[in-house]
Amino acid sequence: MNTYCPACGSAELKSEIKRIAVPVVYGDPVEYEERIDQCLLCGERGDFAGGNDARIEEALAGAKKHFVKFILERISNCGIKVAYLERALDLPPRTVSRWKNGESSAASIALLRTISMFPWILEVADSGFDQNTADMILINQANKIWFSRYKHLVSHSSVDLVLDSDNANFHAFFQVQRSEPRFQYMPVEDQ
Ligand SMILES: [Zn+2]
To answer: Are residues 109 and 158 in the same domain?
Structure first.
């Protein structure tokens, strides 16, 4: 199909193709080939064939697919199985594989990002979004994060919330790291 200048109708055009980076909210910028036509007769410039938008869309769709794959790998590295994720969130089976194949929406990407940041959210979902269970999971996760950041200072930490009809007791237990003994005896375990 020939391309003509929209201003004067001439087919004598000069086209230049440039690689343009498009920013993507969820990853590295993607590149697409931008074509700019120039009319040799009247000097008009522009995307006369109107193909640039489609090439941007194609590049963004590829980036989205790539990102979904990347984030699913991260979730899988946390030991979370796709079947568990789908069951906990009441998603129809094979939902995740449809996302992987490019049928993902902004909402599914937002959900995957949330799970990858807070994997324990699936345990909350699995509990049927029970508030008390959710609170306990959150408190325990906070303890784990605290412990992982300060494990050079403490050798053990745990938290517990005990509720009765009148009181809520929050117990936090931290065991301070002792200096390493000079020789450590490691008993051989019975086979
Ligand atoms: Zn022209």
So the answer is: no
Q: Which pLDDT score, from 0 to 100, does residue 6 have?
A: 96
The whole domain housing 158 covers: 131-191
> How far does the centroid of ligand 1 lie from the alpha carbon of residue 140, in Å?
69
pLDDT at 154: 77
8 Å CB contact between 125 and 158? no
Question: What's the gap in Å between 42 CA and the centre of ligand 1?
Answer: 4
Classify burial at 109, counting beta carbons within 10 Å of its beta carbon; exposed 0-12, middle 13-18, buried 19 or more: middle
The C-alpha atoms of residue 40 and residue 7 are separated, in whole angstroms, by 12
Rounded distance from Cα 51 to ligand 1 centre (Å): 18
Query: In this structure, are 39 and 93 located in the same domain?
Result: yes
The pLDDT averaged over each successive group of 10 residues in the chain (191 residues) is: 92 96 84 96 96 94 90 92 96 94 89 93 95 91 84 78 80 71 58 50
